[in-house]
Amino acid sequence: MSSTTNPLRRLAEFGQSPWLDFIRRGFIADGSLHRLVQADGLKGVTSNPAIFEKAIGEGTDYDEGFRRLAAKGDHGAVEIYEYLAIEDIRAACDVLRPVYEATRRVDGYVSLEVSPYLALRTEETVAEARRLWSAVNRPNLMVKVPGTEAGVPAIQRLTSEGINVNVTLLFARSAYAAVAEAFIAGLEERAGRGEDISHVASVASFFVSRIDTQIDKEIDRRIAAGDPESDALRRLRGRAAIANAKLAYVHYQELAAGSRWRALRGAMPQRLLWASTGVKDKAYRDVMYAEELIGPDTVDTLPPATMDAFRDHGRPRASLTEGLDEAREVLAMAERLGLDLDAVTQRLVPDGVRQFADAADQLLGAVAAKRTAMLGDRLLGLEVTLPEAESKAVEAELARWRAEGGIRRLWAGDAGLWTGTDEARWLGWLRILDERSAHLEALLAFQRELREEGFTHAVLLGMGGSSLGPEVLAETFGRQEGYPELLVLDSTDPAQIAAFEARCDLARTLVIVSSKSGSTLEPNILKAYFWERLKAVVGPERVGRHFVAVTDPGSQLERVAGHDGFRRVFPGDPSIGGRYSVLSNFGLVPAAVMGLDLRRLLASAALMARSCGADVPPAQNPGVRLGAVLGVLGRAGRDKVTLTASPGVADLGAWLEQLIAESTGKVGRGLVPVDGETLGAPDAYGGDRLFAHLRLDAGQDAPMEALARAGQPVVRLALTDRWQLGQAFFLWEMAVAVAGSILGINPFDQPDVEASKVRTRALTAAYAVSGTLPAEAPALTEDGLAVFGEVAPGGFDAAIRAHLGQLGEGDYFALLAYVERSEAHRAALQRMRMAVRDARRVATVAEFGPRFLHSTGQAYKGGPNSGVFLQITAAPARDLPVPGEKYSFGIVEAAQAQGDLEVLRERGRRVLRVHLGLDTEAGLRRLEAAVVRALG
Ligand SMILES: O=P(O)(O)OC[C@H]1O[C@](O)(CO)[C@@H](O)[C@@H]1O
Ligand SMILES: O=C[C@H](O)[C@H](O)COP(=O)(O)O
Known about the structure:
Blueprint: H1 7-10, E1 16-20, H2 25-29, H3 32-40, E2 44-45, H4 49-57, H5 63-71, H6 77-102, E3 109-113, H7 122-136, E4 141-146, H8 151-160, E5 165-170, H9 173-192, E6 202-207, H10 209-224, H11 230-236, H12 240-257, H13 259-263, E7 271-275, H14 288-292, E8 298-302, H15 304-313, H16 324-336, H17 341-375, E9 381-385, H18 388-403, H19 406-411, H20 432-438, H21 441-453, E10 457-461, H22 468-477, E11 485-489, H23 494-503, E12 509-514, H24 521-538, E13 547-551, H25 556-564, E14 568-571, H26 585-593, H27 598-611, H28 622-635, E15 640-645, H29 652-664, E16 672-675, E17 689-695, H30 701-709, E18 714-718, H31 725-743, H32 753-770, E19 780-782, E20 785-788, H33 795-805, E21 812-818, H34 823-840, E22 843-848, H35 857-862, E23 867-873, H36 889-906, E24 910-915, H37 920-935
Parallel strand pairs: 1-8, 2-3, 3-4, 4-5, 5-6, 6-7, 7-8, 10-11, 10-12, 12-13, 13-14, 15-16, 15-17, 17-18, 21-22, 21-23, 23-24
Antiparallel strand pairs: 9-18, 19-20, 20-24
Helix pairs in contact: 4-17, 6-17, 7-8, 8-9, 9-12, 10-11, 10-17, 12-16, 18-28, 20-27, 21-26, 22-26, 22-29, 27-31, 28-31, 29-31, 32-36, 33-37, 34-37
Bound molecules: 6-O-phosphono-beta-D-fructofuranose and erythose-4-phosphate.
């Protein structure tokens, strides 16, 4: 087609530049874009999130680029999208560069839109536009910025900085006027600073077809309803958008003729660009919008089909300035008929933002899914199997999270996602991996130093979040050649302390005192104890060399460590709570001590952090998916999160218990983690369970499968190696934060833990004065066992039977034992809980005090009142002194049990205490026998 007959080329005669509303890699690569420039006189390209969604989200055009980037390392979804999009935009810019040169910067532009998620935020939009401008690094780029209220000041700022802006999503003439004003003001600012304004280009993208779509819909509705004005309404079909655009152009002409504009000598005007020009209603001529809006100094961006149609049968004429009176009449008539154009154009802005955000979600979801597929088993797999109703409820929650931008709000620290209190202060865990990876030298140097010094043991003293993460690492990885064995001590039980001490060669033992607050009772008195013991072995000069502290800056422990000459003090991050601290120094210091490859651990965890990123929509985001399952099912009464782990990662359950229980169990709501129950057949369980399988080997696949088949909800986390532990940490942290939002609680506080601590403090203080703990008279004693609490008459068996008799549907049974956490004791508790589960089909937990007080204890006291508690205490066969205190460890342990019992009672929990006396083993045997009889 010759240049005189090609209707597209002929647009130039009327002063209009045709641009293409489309981009795709193959289309640039195979020369198609270039051919349009050559043959059709194409003068620019526009893109938007929906266009990129179609290009990148569908098909395989981008796989090669994807692989190229992956070869350089793992990247998040937005990074991948931008890498690919920017490559395309640059390539298109280069194809259009000759046009840019030949038209002396009037045309030849390629547009790239800022993230639609930012459309309502000025500062972020400015920052993003600047970033894209320098990343693309082409003079013929136009950054697309939505012409929303927040966009207007951004447009002025960017223009004043010399960045080319394509203002998008303009529907109302008033919005266009504001944008045109911002552009002029931006240029004035620039000129005022004496900077060049001749190269700053801008277009105002005025949308057309979307307006008719809305107005026509209303017209059709009213005609169908038999409106008496049906004939008049019918005559207005397909006319409002064009009339609106024509009058916008009148405003443009007035501005261009105005003195303010003329004063900006040498500047290029901000042209009107007709966007949304593809005809959506098949009843209309397919080139209608293209034909009716042709005029000087305008741009028309055409989707490929409209461009083909116009080339084929478009009839160009100077249409834009024709029939202005008619245009006014159309709008007046629309108003008379009650077709509210203002309301429509106003509504189209947020609709447009939402549509582009939806497209971006689709696009990023597709990118994230491809990334996951490419990572394969380097990434822990999450598989969710739910019964239909639960599945639907979770899908609905994920849809809500997507629509409300939940994951972006979470990463942005929007406390309103939870209870609107202090949540934003506790989100340091989100970014700790990058922070730690960038500052690993000190830890690596420390690791080398320890190796050289030949420590054989390291004892970590800490509670809850300061001990459970290290314990998982120690249990999962075991002793590493050339490094000390890590032992984690989180008990005040004298027998347990003595047992740990006996396992160590004190002369070659490093002690890690681990406490965020630095004021927790247990690590402090344990420190005092081991300090004395080591001093006796290595001497007062050397003892400090055997101690390191991990604690938050400014804590009492930091001061003590400084005073005592500890070998090192490693700081925690005060924006991370204990149970979220495992990937901070609280996990990394012990990991370094035990000789783990820190880089490997962090790099593996970072894969999951990216998968859970702000840029990964809920349906593809494993953190949000798992969180939605926990939250939605928990809210509906499936609140017993039953953890099953392959032996290789069995201890993960203990860490998860704290994360889940302490984070969610409060204000009478929350999730109750159930760790360590032996898996049973489906009929062993009630309807209050959610099963989470932490899978490293196939051992429990069959029973899990059976549960899923029987209609129990099952989530499976498949780890391919132990290093994916870091991924599991991050995934669960995110999931619990999400679940907390769904449950409507603050996942980062622990309001009920303090209550027991206060009671314990009061008891130990009283002990310091009187030398005894306040004695409570037992309700009964029998066969060496004493029972405390309200008991029915009839002796020990009857008391146990009555207590267990309280267990109803949806309840859980909890054994809270203040004894040494030895294998034999664990086994005894395990037998008792399993007997209860199998007889009563209730969830069961078996915990050791005081360890659980800093973990699940929060949920037992503050969560749902569905626990039936059996507290077990014993008299220590051999007590240990706490240096510098009147009380002993045995007294502390007793006070802790007593304090917790009082709070449990005060909270209306169903609790009974059994004191085993001096012979723990015999007492446990008697208790077990009574439990078995009670169930019989
Ligand atoms: O690290 P810290 O301050 O000693 O606290 C230990 C643990 O105690 C708790 O505060 C509960 O008492 C946990 O949240 C925390 O992980
Ligand atoms: O800049 C181009 C616009 O984003 C595009 O024309 C919108 O067109 P649509 O209304 O057909 O989505």
